[in-house]
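Preliminary data (for renewal application), adenosine monophosphate complex.
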Amino acid sequence: MRLILLGPPGAGKGTQAQRLVERHGIVQLSTGDMLRAAVKAGTEVGLKAKAVMDAGQLVSDEIVVGVVADRIDQPDCARGFILDGFPRTVPQAEALDRMLAGKGLKLDAVIELKVDEEALVARMENRVKETIAAGGVPRADDNPDAFRKRLAEYREKTAPLSSYYAAAGELKTTDGMRSIDEVTEAIDAILKGTVG
Ligand code: AMP
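Predicted structure:
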């Protein structure tokens, strides 16, 4: 089973991906994690990616696609994978299509978690208020300004992937504002209708 989960930051992709890993024996491939590992190991890719990552910019498509292409050849990906943090742009999605076709593979589903962005921001603001009221220090990324920036970047660069995959007839959408369990059930129902 080969999947992509789409949705803005805070939509619950990580939580759902973890559940899919457990239920289906597939692996979660995070390009951010893979690149950080390459930097740590001092590989050629790591050396190229380090400065770009340190500057908070996007690593070139060539590098990211190469990293994913090598990773999915590993034996633990034989049962399938969920891509996390990739593709992040339409050109990356096009490169992924070419790369999978070259390996004789295809995606089973692209599942989008539809969420109300303002509700996500409100949730985050509440969490910050509650933490402060309880005498705690909010996490650095539980910061409404930073969060809005990530949402804006998602909207600009990654949200166009919904139309891309919809045009290819691969997109399935589900309401990500429901409880974690309800979203998991909805994803399962989509997969039952899509996979094998
Ligand atoms: P993340 O852990 O997904 O936030 O990724 C951390 C960093 O890795 C990003 O800031 C980028 O520099 C790089 N990165 C991860 N995924 C990608 C991608 N699909 N395309 C380009 N750069 C990426």
